[in-house]
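Hypothesis: this fold can be encoded by more than one sequence.
Test: take the structure tokens below, design a sequence, compare later.
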């Protein structure tokens, strides 16, 4: 049976709620026979290191304080997660262990690795018990029984045998990360952050198919997303770059994590336990992903120069200090980058071969494809100069550039470095859904537009979707021959396949451009967001969906730093949303928006002069392709109702579609039944229209079909779509047939409103409006 290994880091187990979230993920994603490797909860290992330090310093008071801190944290978890016998048994076990630690302090028999092991032992026990209490067959396993090493070398053949028999098919195995045993049975650790390594080791031993590292970010980013919000999440990262990042001390993956995967087909992914729906980052073999750009920062380090470094020595030293040590050769001499707190240990161990050449330095490394390094290295140095940061040491290696500075690289400087060194030359994959009238024009316009945007972005049209067929070309379709490619290569449309293809796209950014009018397609938006796609829609359904769904979508987009534009869903290319956003951003208040937002109804009402029956006009418009296939869609007013809702939400108003009063431009009974029945009874429509028209004329006005949104001083909102009598001379009365008009009354445009008028439909203007959204997207991804 295919087995999977999951690993949850300390950040995923920092509170009782996090344990519950992890249990939920296990319930959803694990099968009996899978393994779950856990780290110590939250920062427990750090606390245990403190406990050890106070033990070494023989500071009894500090020891007891820290021990109490450890106890409180564990008690809190147990109290929140358990009741009854299980609660009592777990507490008793904990108290016994803490007592044993206190006694070992007194007897001075405390052992460093065994002390640190408690963190992982507690996590595994708590999680296994919690899962059991939820009815999941779970068993905790102490990894010291699985991973044995001799003289610092893991006994792979033996371990494999032991793991094979210990990991059966009848339970989910909760395995302690980080710890192992030596051949005498003494506890050893695999180094700080080593649980990632435990997970891949176990996967290798039991021939698992996949390892998922669950952490608190949704994957591997171009830089720490906690420091730079515009950090780019990469869908794929190649093993060599991930390994280099880890060797440079980046915490997202531990340095040794990848070694057990060499020569295997075991898949590795990084995912977020805080957002388990989100697509993670896949760490792939060489050749399966493009090389990316990263910046990783350093904590406080000492730079050591070493005479004659022997092979295997770095490994021994990093085992000694429990930390990865980056080493490199410069000017023919070996250098080590060691966390300052441990450099005395390293210097002692290498005595007299090592010297500190720079102490207490910080800085960063840029990891990038080798052809980019020289340029990035120079740019990085210039940027530091501009920011008055003094460099103490620099190294330009083949696939990274290293800069050590005398002060830390804070988030602001990191953001600038990221913006200039990583954010340039990015790729944006464009997927167009709906290749009808507008879609075709949009694609035709792509070539010129993509060229224009190419200075900052490399845009590629990678997918075309229609209701029955789709075409994917991950390296980008040939824009001069896309129609031919469509004819020769399009395959049957299939939703599951669509998401598989999107998942496989190895681009920094992806955007779905929805030019369909399909409600069903808009229902897929949350899934697109889970697949890290930005959205641009001409489709009105998502923007007018139920408010709860709509806000959830917006929230998800925000959480993932994704953008959504749907300007053309109202007024096609007319810059209505820009105007509304601008007014609001500059302190104005919108009081009322009214207008005609349907090209079809604009055309019908403006053309009607009584010389021809209204239904004749409707049929004429239908023949000219100005209406929906069934023109009652237009006459119902629902389309305008949706547009008014989009405008309202653009103003931040919480409104549902059916809260907008709707008065159709036809008698109610005609709305029902078939199109043929409608045709038979069209006289009723003519009478209806003529009657309303006559009333308007009596009042020196004209009949128009309008939408109006009014926001009272007290915030009360009144929204209505229906028949209006518009005084002759008003802007709405004199509308060019087919045009849309938006009359915006604000605090500043009070007497004399702001009017935006022009064609609100048509393939060229709509396609251009979508390009305007795409341009906006590229500007805002900067
Ligand atoms: P865990 O407890 O799950 O092992 P770690 O704290 O060891 O998690 O590692 C995850 C942290 O790594 C994130 O919270 C993030 O702040 C940091 N980090 C630094 N660089 C990156 C990066 N390039 N991509 C993702 N996370 C990063
Ligand atoms: N708990 C250990 C540490 O904090 C191992 C790990 O988290 O992977 O270093
Ligand atoms: Mg970690």
């Amino acid at each position: 049976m295919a087995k999977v290994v999951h690993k949850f880091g300390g950040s995923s187990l920092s509170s009782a709620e996090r344990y519950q979230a992890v249990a939920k993920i296990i319930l959803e994603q694990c099968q009996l026979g899978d393994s779950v490797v856990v780290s110590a909860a939250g920062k427990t290992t750090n606390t245990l290191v403190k406990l050890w330090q106070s033990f070494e310093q023989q500071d009894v008071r500090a020891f007891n304080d820290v021990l109490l801190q450890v106890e409180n944290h564990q008690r809190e978890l147990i109290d929140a997660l358990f009741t009854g016998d299980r609660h009592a048994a777990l507490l008793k076990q904990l108290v016994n262990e803490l007592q044993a630690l206190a006694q070992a302090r007194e007897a001075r028999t405390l052992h460093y690795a065994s002390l640190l092991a408690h963190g992982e032992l507690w996590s595994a026990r708590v999680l296994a018990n919690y899962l059991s209490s939820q009815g999941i067959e779970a068993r905790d396993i102490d990894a010291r029984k699985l991973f044995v090493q001799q003289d610092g070398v893991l006994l792979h053949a033996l371990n494999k045998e032991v793991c094979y028999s210990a990991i059966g098919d009848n339970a989910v195995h909760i395995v302690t990360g980080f710890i192992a045993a030596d051949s005498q049975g003494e506890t050893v650790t695999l180094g700080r952050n080593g649980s990632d390594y435990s997970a891949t080791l176990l996967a290798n031993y039991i021939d698992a198919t996949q390892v998922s590292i669950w952490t608190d970010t949704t994957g591997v980013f171009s830089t720490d997303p906690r420091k730079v919000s515009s950090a780019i999440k990469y869908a794929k990262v190649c093993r060599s770059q991930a390994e280099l990042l880890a060797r440079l001390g980046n915490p997202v993956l531990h340095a040794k994590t990848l070694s057990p995967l060499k020569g295997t087909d075991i898949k590795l992914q990084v995912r977020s336990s805080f957002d388990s729906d989100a697509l993670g980052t896949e760490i792939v073999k060489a050749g399966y992903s493009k090389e990316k750009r990263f910046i990783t920062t350093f904590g406080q380090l000492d730079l050591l120069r070493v005479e004659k470094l022997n092979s295997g020595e770095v490994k021994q030293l990093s085992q000694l200090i429990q930390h990865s040590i980056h080493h490199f050769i410069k000017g023919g001499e070996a250098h080590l980058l060691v966390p300052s707190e441990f450099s005395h240990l390293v210097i002692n161990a290498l005595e007299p071969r090592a010297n500190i050449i720079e102490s207490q330095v910080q800085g960063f490394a840029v990891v990038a494809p080798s052809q980019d390094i020289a340029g990035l290295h120079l740019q990085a140095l210039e940027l530091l100069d501009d920011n008055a940061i003094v460099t103490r040491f620099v190294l330009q290696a083949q696939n990274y550039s290293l800069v050590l500075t005398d002060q830390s690289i804070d988030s602001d400087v990191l953001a600038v470095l990221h913006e200039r060194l990583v954010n340039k030359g990015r790729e944006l994959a464009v997927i167009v859904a709906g290749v009808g009238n507008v879609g075709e024009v949009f694609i035709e316009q792509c070539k010129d537009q993509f060229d224009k945007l190419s200075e900052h972005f490399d845009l590629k049209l990678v997918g075309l979707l229609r209701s029955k067929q789709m075409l994917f070309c991950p390296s980008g379709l040939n824009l001069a021959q896309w129609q031919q490619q469509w004819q020769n290569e399009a395959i049957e449309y299939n939703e599951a396949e669509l998401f598989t293809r999107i998942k496989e796209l190895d681009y920094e950014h992806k955007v779905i451009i929805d030019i369909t009018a399909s409600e069903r397609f808009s229902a897929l938006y949350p899934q697109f967001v889970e697949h890290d796609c930005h959205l641009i829609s001409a489709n009105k359904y998502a923007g007018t969906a139920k408010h709860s769904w709509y806000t959830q979508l917006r929230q998800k987009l925000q959480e993932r730093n994704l953008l959504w534009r749907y300007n053309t869903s109202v007024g096609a290319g007319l810059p209505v949303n820009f105007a509304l956003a601008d007014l609001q951003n500059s302190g104005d208040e919108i009081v009322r928006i009214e207008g005609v937002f349907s090209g079809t109804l604009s055309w019908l009402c403006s053309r009607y002069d009584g010389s021809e029956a209204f239904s004749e006009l409707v049929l004429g418009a239908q023949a000219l392709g100005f209406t929906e296939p069934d023109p009652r869609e237009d006459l119902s007013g629902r389309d305008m109702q949706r547009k008014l809702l989009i405008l309202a939400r653009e103003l931040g108003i919480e409104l549902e579609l059916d809260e907008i009063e709707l008065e159709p431009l036809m008698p109610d009974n005609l709305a029902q039944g078939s199109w043929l029945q409608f045709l038979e009874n069209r006289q009723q429509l003519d009478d209806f229209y003529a009657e309303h028209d006559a009333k308007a004329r009596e009042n020196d006005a004209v009949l128009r079909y309008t939408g109006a949104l009014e926001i009272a001083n007290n915030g009360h909102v009144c929204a209505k779509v229906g028949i209006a009598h518009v005084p002759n001379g008003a802007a709405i009365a004199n509308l060019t047939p087919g045009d849309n008009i938006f009359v915006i009354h604000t605090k500043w445009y009070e007497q004399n409103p702001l009017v935006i008028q022009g064609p609100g439909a048509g393939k060229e203007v709509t396609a251009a409006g979508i390009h305007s959204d795409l341009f906006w997207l590229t500007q805002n991804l900067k």
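Residues 426-572+769-781 form a domain with the Rossmann fold fold (CATH 3.40.50.720). The chain has a mean pLDDT of 94.
Hypothesis status: open.
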